[in-house]
Amino acid sequence: MADITYIPIRQLYPHPDNPRKELGDLSELAASIKENGVYQNLTVIPGHYLNSREYIAKCVDEGGDAAAAAAAWTPKAVWSSEDYTIIIGHRRAAAAQQAGLYELPCAIVEMDEREQMQTMMIENMQRSDLTVYEQAQGFQMMMDFGQTVEQISDKSGFSQSTIRRRIKLLELNRDSFKKAEKRGATLSDFAQLDKIEDLEARNRVLETLGTQNFNRAMQDVLEQQKWQHQKAEWVEQLKKFATEDSQASYQTHEHVNAYGKWGTKKEVVMPEDADKIAYVYKVSENQIDLYKPRDTEAEDASNSAREAARATEQLAREQFAAVTKLMYELRWDFVKDLTPAECKKHLPEILAYSTPILTEYRHMEDDENVLRLLGIGLDEQIREDTELEDALKMFNAYDTEPEKILLAVAFDATDSSREGYWSTEWNGPTGASKFVHRKNDDLDSTYELLAALGYEMADDEKALQDGTHQLFAVYGSGSQADTLCDKCKAAHPECDKCCKTCDDHCNAFQLCRKEYGE
Question: How far apart are CA 305 and CA 13, in angstroms?
Fold first, then answer.
């Protein structure tokens, strides 16, 4: 065991490779040291790397330029055999200096770089002093010194899989990672990022980690990832009988089929006349269209335009349905993960939400959905012959989680993947529907309850609710509730409602007609 030597603090230098980059708040430790002194010695090695001030002074003394020296300096630029470098005790040294101490008890040892790194890593991890990112950096540095994952595991106590996952985190954007840590992101949150294959997408989602938008961002990226895989599979199948044509359209070809982002279970079927007809396919962001040649001169241009409008309408319908379904899945997952204790804590809100629903809705057809919300799984044979009430009794759910049952039944009766904030209105001039924002009091009520239970709405959900979502701008006019059009105001300035003479049929006109029974 090394002898203890008291060394002036001014001769002690922090190690440039100390895994713990942030020493944290030292005020409490400094106050304790000021009152009681330092009970545990530091571990140091002889010598130190010149800091920037020392390096610049050395260069100037040797005839060099100060500015050039400042630009050239790095934390490990020049080693000096004088003074000492701290291996264990960085926080104690900084706090002691803050407390006004002159010297500290130190054990002087000899270590090579690998031993230094290993000692600092293990010491900090035993104290749980390192952040996840600092652990990752430390593991990587130990590997850079030639140690294997197995050796690091033996010395640190971390499993090999944990070490590999930590090192993988170094692929992520460092600044975004640290911001996520400060927002309170957990290890399980970071682990979810492993599901994302594309590094750029992983970093994009990392920016939301620790916020209410994280689950939505994960959902969006994983859906897109799933879509890209499906799209590639479809393309391979289409290549067997069709060629890609990026210029194909409804105007130049006859549309045969579409394979979209919101119907990924659809299968590509080779047409019977594929050996006679030159089929082509066009890949776009959200779908793949299959075409065959057409005689454009023999077709009426207006029919072609209407066909395109109907196709756009169908695409819009699918996108609105898809985003509505995704928002429902966020709410569904939140309800599924609630514990009985959380439900019991908010039983008054749940009852206020459930009572009018349970008295109005009597057709509980989707018993299986309720059971899944409760985490109860039935095999197919039992499910066919078992009523919801019997299944709940079978699993003793009435006694163990009555509050969760109440919430699950009410949620299933009210909410579904079809509940959204949009509807369609017929647009005569275009021969197709436009998609407009509509209020949904039932869904508002669901969100109010979930918010009371701790749910945080993603930005997409808020935009759909208030009518500002980009889909409304693309496929229709945004929310027009109770809004008078300019023609109405000009024709009847004294009236605050539209009348039946309005040609534009704005939303206020529809409300007016409904009120007067027309």
Answer: 76
Who has greater pLDDT, 220 or 355?
A: 220
Tokens (6 digits) for 241: 């009988």
C-alpha 217/C-alpha 456 separation (Å) is 13
Query: What is the C-alpha to C-alpha distance for residues 209 and 223, in angstroms, rounded to an integer?
Result: 18
The structure's pTM equals: 0.48
Place of tokens 């209407």: 306
DSSP state of 194: G
Please name which of 149, 155, 105 lies closest in space to residue 125, comparing C-alpha atoms: 155
Torsion of CA 30, 34, 36, 41, to 10 degrees: 60
Each residue of 297-314: pLDDT tens digit? 655 666 777 788 888 888
**DSSP state for residue 130 in the 8-state scheme:** S
Reduce the DSSP state of residue 299 to 3 states and report it.
Answer: coil
502-513 residues labelled b (16+ CB within 10 A) or e (exposed):
beebbbbbebbe
Q: Which two tokens stand for residue 299?
A: 């077709």
Q: Note the pLDDT of residue 124.
A: 72
Whole-Å CA distances, 396 to 166, 326, 365, 391: 41, 32, 21, 9
Look at 44-58, 306-320, 493-507 and tell me which has the smallest mean pLDDT. Answer: 493-507
Whether the CB-CB separation of 373 and 412 falls below 8 Å is answered with: yes
pLDDT in tens, 206-216: 999 989 899 89
For 329, what's the count of Cα atoms within 13 Å in the CB-facing half-sphere?
12
- 3-state SS of 36-104 is HCCCCCEEEEEEEECCHHHHHHHHHHCCCCHHHHHHHCCCCCCEEEEEEEEEECHHHHHHHHHHCCCEE
Strand order in the sheet with 253-260: 242-244, 279-283, 287-293, 253-260
Mean pLDDT of the chain: 82
Main-chain phi, psi angles of 274, to 5 degrees: -60, -25
DSSP 340-359: HHHHHHTHHHHHHHHHHHHH
What span, in angstroms and rounded, lies between the C-alpha atoms of 140 and 117? 11
CATH architecture of 4-171: Alpha-Beta Complex (3.90)
Residues 6+ apart with CB under 8 A from 58: 50, 69, 78
Q: Domain extents for the chain?
A: 4-171, 172-211, 228-299, 308-477, 480-518
**Using only C-alpha atoms, what is the Rg of the chain?**
33
Report the alpha-carbon distance of residue 116 to residue 148 in Å, rounded. Answer: 16
Q: Phi and psi dihedrals of 267, rounded to 5?
A: -105, 145
Any idea which residue has 């080693």 for tokens? 79
Instruction: Cite the beta strand spans of 96-235 per DSSP E.
Output: 103-108
Give me the sign of the Cα torsion angle 470, 474, 480, 485: positive
Which stretches does DSSP call E strand in 184-285? 242-244, 253-260, 279-283
Over residues 460-477, the mean pLDDT reads 88
